[in-house]
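Good day; I would like, with your permission, to put a structural problem before you. What I wish to show you is a protein chain and, alongside it, a tokenised description of its three-dimensional fold. Here, with my thanks, is the record as I have it:
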Amino acid sequence: MDELLAFLAIGFFAQLIDGALGMAFGLLSTTALLTLGLAPANASAMVHTAEIFTTGASAVSHVMHKNFNRRLVIELSLAGSLGAIIGAHVLSNIDGRMMRPFVAAYLFVLGLSILLRTLRAPPESDTPPTFAMPLGIVGGFLDAIGGGGWGATVTTTLLGSGHAPRMVVGSVNTAELFVAVAAASTFFIELRLVPIQALIGLTVGGVLAAPLGAYLARRIPARPLMAAIGLVVVCLAGLQIAASA
């Protein structure tokens, strides 16, 4: 019961941050699972299986609050799913930890870029970027192989290119549902292993937090939201860099 409550707490707080900031469920959950002794592939498989339910609840919440751009969701969903399938297959056959320092360095730079943008006027553009498809492939691949990083990669890149935080967060979270299904399905085919206790805890905690995260994304002004996203990315990336040094 203590372990179940621990997984539930991890899922709740990770999804609360993810729903409000558009990132961190996979990164936080995977880090916690690795600390508890799970192998990288098994941890990523667990997180993405749980994300089918948590991102589903989050997607519904963002749609209800109209925090999304339809075209951006479609493009990210298709490209992200393809990247996730490739990444899950690779991670199931090699040790994905060798890529973490490079991904962390990339995210650290993006986080600093977002923090610098808070010194200027908040972005207002809701027009989908022309690079959504390649960005989705890269984001889906890194998300599957690193056990997280879809939001940190895709959200930070879109914000860094000048798109409005609320629409970015909602669109990226909604597309993540399809990315999670693609990754989890591939992991199941490759590994055929689902630790049920961790799955239940992460899922229930995440589903409970999803509506609150979407509400916060709509209510928090653009500039503070960007600053919070930048700080989260810089801190998480810095911890990853320090751990791999």
